[in-house]
Amino acid sequence: MPEEKIILNIGGIKYETFRSTLTSQPETLLGTMFQDQNECIKNSVNGNEYFFNRNGEVFHYIMEFYRTGKLLLPAIPLWNEFLGSQITYRKLEEELDYFQINKSKLFSSLASKIAKNAIDQYISRLEQLIISNYVSFNNKISLSIGNDNRPDDYKEYVILTNMNEQIEKHLVETFSELNLKWINISISSPVEKLLKSESVQSHITFIQDPINMSEEKIILNIGGKKYETFQSILTAQPKTLLGTMFQDRNKSMRHPINENEYFFDRNSEAFYYIMEFYRTGKITLLYESGKVTYKQLEEEYNYFQIPFNKSTVICLSALETIRNNFNTLILVFEELIIYCCNYFRNYIKIEISRDGRTRIAEPDNRCYHEENLRKYCLPKFGGLYMFQTLNNMQTQIRDHLGKKFSDFELIWGFSSDHSQIYISISLSFGNIYKNFK
């Protein structure tokens, strides 16, 4: 028999949970209220829905306490009253008092949790910095932080000074597949890794048949937030919790709460990334927000039995980003060459700036189509990381284009300095004329 679901309407924001989740904390207001012997003290506004005129945004953290037994802190500073956020230390404390949650027990380690959060956030920023530099082909990162500037600089200075060895060990292990060295943070050649590495999510099986639009939809109600999908999307990952649950052979084990709707008392914000995995077959990395951190996301991956290795995913995702940029750049050059072929233009030279601007270096004012070339083709070279990708992989791009357009005897010219890249492409139409029938 399915467990009773409770809807908590907190200032207009609805949270859905199980009665057992609330009664797991029997000394709190909600834990006491939903004990069977206390039915008389509950005031339902609509069936199993109960209204509390409290702060709905802050209650997200109260609800996570009931689900995990831990007070999970937001990434933003709780004590800053001027951030324009409804979530402050003072308001969290007020809500804990109202819901009769023992602050002395929870807050006894609050200071150490805040310090650990600060360290986690700093390391997370270092990881993002490394990925950003790796993707832009910068193989050395120099950390230089003073102790007399902004408060954040001082904090990072203290962390780096006192935890140099721990941070080094963590980063070297996390980026082991990129051969990271901790001498001013030195990373091996992205091009070499790019050509040798496997596809990013090769360790994950993803087999999906074309979706039958008449197939019944599945509604996953995660803590009150609903996600809609098809059964085949979930069963495409048969070794995961949802993939197993929605196999036809396990139909008798499922207990919908409303026809095709299934409730899970889990973190609704983090489930966005779980759902993206089922839809794409890839694990998506997040940038830590106020409501979802890496640690919380790892907990959800574990709950839904999705294989997750941060080191593998973070390294291979960086490599995939480079590959995607490389393939995008290839397509842009192919489009440019095809455009030139369409107008029998046998030579073009373009200048690409580090800031993303692109122009024809040697314009041909007789070409009436040149304005369209400037308008539709050239801007595509200005995408993020295009300059760095071209500067580091021009040899591979040259070889690819030479093979693909072999009928045109393509000649590739390349030169660069710190801020500009010059590319010239020469084409011969002799073979086309000669072999025309």
From TrEMBL:
<dbReference type="InterPro" id="IPR000210">
    <property type="entry name" value="BTB/POZ_dom"/>
</dbReference>
<dbReference type="InterPro" id="IPR011333">
    <property type="entry name" value="SKP1/BTB/POZ_sf"/>
</dbReference>
<dbReference type="InterPro" id="IPR003131">
    <property type="entry name" value="T1-type_BTB"/>
</dbReference>
<dbReference type="Pfam" id="PF02214">
    <property type="entry name" value="BTB_2"/>
</dbReference>
<protein>
    <submittedName>
        <fullName>42596_t:CDS:1</fullName>
    </submittedName>
</protein>
<feature type="domain" description="BTB">
    <location>
        <begin position="216"/>
        <end position="287"/>
    </location>
</feature>
